[in-house]
Design a protein that fits this description.
two-stranded antiparallel ribbon; Helix Hairpins; mainly alpha; 2% strand; 15 helices
Length: 324
Amino acid sequence: MTTKRNKENRDNSQSKNDIKDALIIADAVSRGYYHDWNKQDNFYQQLRVIVDEREYWSDNLVNLKNRLQRCLDITFPEYTRVYKEWTCPRSIATLKAFPLPTDINELTAQNVIEGWKKAGFQRAGGNTGIRKATDLINQSRQSVGNTDALEERKREISRLVEEYERTIARINQINQEMIIILQRIPLVVERMKSIKGLSPLYIAVILANAGDLSQYKHGRQFLSQAGLNLAESTSGKKKGQIIISKRGRRQLRKYLYLAVIGLVVNNPSFKSWHEYNIQVLKMKKQRSIFKLIGKLARTLIGMARNEEFFNPDKTLALKKDIAA
């Protein structure tokens, strides 16, 4: 990035070649425009690999869900009237046994229940099973779905469901491997887990992308690593909008945001801060979330450097002092 930004300084030209790049790099280093690279311990490298692999399969899972939802919208748009979430076990059994509405509309409720059992859904019967089977049959008989290329659509849905289950199994396996790796630093993990609502996934992603948190002198360095440091553009009387720089690790930025969303719901301290920001400071919800990301970053660095556990009473007492 430094080379790209400085390549036009010398000759006011966007041209690029190896000789020019070498000169720009040498000039940047001589001026101190660089950061030292600290090699992380092998533990953090292993964690980074497994977190990246999980992210890859998670992205694939989203693509599979979207593709399968598209197929259902084409062939059986009424399906969501029976199942609000097609990923539930009974719905998966339905898609395995009866991918298309034409596979259902001539059946009885008992036939549908037997099909669920053959597809591996054990608790297929009962009052709930009969009601769901009846609803499914009624919706299939009045379906307005596309009836072209039914065999091809059927094979596509079957393959997508099969790949969906396989991907879920892969992600669950990776989660178990991730937990095993985290067990190698139990004290660090226990400190971070003392923040109620911070799951092992968030802990793994933070450590994989940031490395040893005790090496940071302040939470601002951690935020800069994630590209969450603030940037603004001002000139004279004109004051530009303050934005986040996004010059950092995208994955760390994403999961810090998701982590704080969860903490606002599950952690009393963060919930209290969020309510204070909105009700007293009159912040918008999104701005409050980003402010709490900074709070989380400083808290994690402080806990790592001081080797302390999260203390809710201490943080809540600090909030009362600020409010007073």
